[in-house]
């Protein structure tokens, strides 16, 4: 797929699952459960043990491109290069690092770039980041996002951090293009180990983000 096709698929999905786990042995199981729950876009973070191997494994299992597998917590160029080499289809950063965009775009890979302040957001956008990840969104709150979205209404934002079922509709109504979900999904599995809670939670999020 081209970079633009991947970006389009991310935006259409509206929901990005963040796979951040302490044990590598649990990664593939969680990824498969997310896919079974109809998640189409997910990132495996660089602070998950064995993340490069797990990105490669996931790409192999879903080689038909029905699922997008990205790398998360890509804070610098070295992580970006290793993630791309492992097969990551997109990169997600927590910080604003234009060099990551440069290396990614050289490889036809889109970047969801973390930014918080107006300066960071504009810096990321001016360096052609494909989507802006407002992070940590919940720490700043909806009023902050609305203030940012006013003058920067031409920018596509995915909001990450503190998003749950009680507030996701408000974020989407305020102009978010999508959401990134981490612990709210991980906790579903860690609570009882079953897939039912995860599937219910994902279904509820999809209903709300697609209203």
From TrEMBL:
Gene3D superfamilies: Aldolase class I (3.20.20.70). Pathway: Carbohydrate acid metabolism. InterPro entries: Aldlse_KDPG_KHG (IPR000887), Aldolase_TIM (IPR013785). Keywords: Carbohydrate metabolism, Lyase. Belongs to the KHG/KDPG aldolase family. Homotrimer. This is Bifunctional 4-hydroxy-2-oxoglutarate aldolase/2-dehydro-3-deoxy-phosphogluconate aldolase. The lineage of its organism: Bacteria, Pseudomonadati, Bacteroidota, Flavobacteriia, Flavobacteriales.
């Amino acid at each position: 797929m081209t970079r633009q096709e991947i970006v389009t698929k991310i935006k259409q999905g509206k929901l990005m699952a963040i796979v951040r786990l302490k044990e590598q042995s649990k990664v593939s199981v969680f990824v498969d459960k997310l896919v079974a729950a109809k998640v189409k876009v997910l990132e495996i973070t660089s602070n998950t043990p064995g993340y490069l191997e797990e990105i490669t494994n996931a790409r192999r299992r879903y080689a038909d491109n029905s699922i997008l597998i990205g790398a998360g917590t890509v804070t610098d160029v070295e992580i970006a290069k290793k993630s791309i080499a492992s097969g990551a289809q997109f990169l997600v950063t927590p910080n604003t690092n234009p060099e990551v965009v440069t290396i990614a775009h050289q490889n036809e890979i889109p970047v969801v770039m973390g930014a918080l302040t107006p300066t960071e957001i504009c810096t990321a956008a001016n360096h052609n980041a494909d989507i802006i990840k407002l992070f940590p969104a919940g720490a700043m709150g909806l009023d902050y996002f609305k203030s940012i979205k006013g003058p920067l209404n031409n920018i596509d934002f995915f909001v990450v951090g503190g998003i749950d079922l009680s507030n996701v509709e408000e974020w989407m109504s305020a102009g978010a293009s999508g959401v990134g979900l981490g612990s709210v999904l991980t906790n579903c599995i860690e609570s009882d180990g079953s897939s039912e809670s995860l599937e219910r939670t994902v279904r509820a999020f999809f209903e709300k983000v697609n209203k």
